[in-house]
Amino acid sequence: QVQLAESGGALVQPGGSLRLSCAVSGFTISNYMMSWYRQAPGKEREFVARIFSSGGLTNYRDSVKGRFTISRDNDKNTLYLQMTSLKPEDTAVYYCKKDGSDYWGQGTQVTVSS
Hints:
By secondary structure, the chain is mainly beta. It has no helices and 10 strands. The chain has strands at residues 3-7, 11-12, 18-25, 34-39, 46-51, 58-60, 68-73, 78-83, 92-98, 108-112. A 6-stranded mixed beta sheet has the order 2-10-9-4-5-6, with no helix packed on it. It is globular. The termini are far apart. 29% of the residues are buried.
C-alpha cells in the first residue's frame, strides 16, 4: 500500500527556515521522480520542486530558486524540502507527490507571518 506522509509544517516568521519531510511507504523513492507542490488559500495547487530518480537532478519554480532545496534520504525512503528565507507568499499547504501517479500525501501547513 502506497502512503506518503508529510510533516514539519509550522508557523514561522519571515526570514525563517523550515524542513519538511515526506515519509514514503509502498515504493522506493530513489526509483521515481518525486515532487513537492503547494496550495495557498483560494489558489490552485502549484509545482515547487522536483528531484529526478537518476543522478539527483533537481528543478524548482523560479520564486523559490536559491531558497528551497529538495533532497531525499534513500535509507529512510524519505523526501525533504529545506526552506530558507521564507516569505509570507510561501504560506500554503505543502504536498509531496510521486510524479506520474495520483499518489499524494495529506499535506502539511506552512504559515509565514510575523
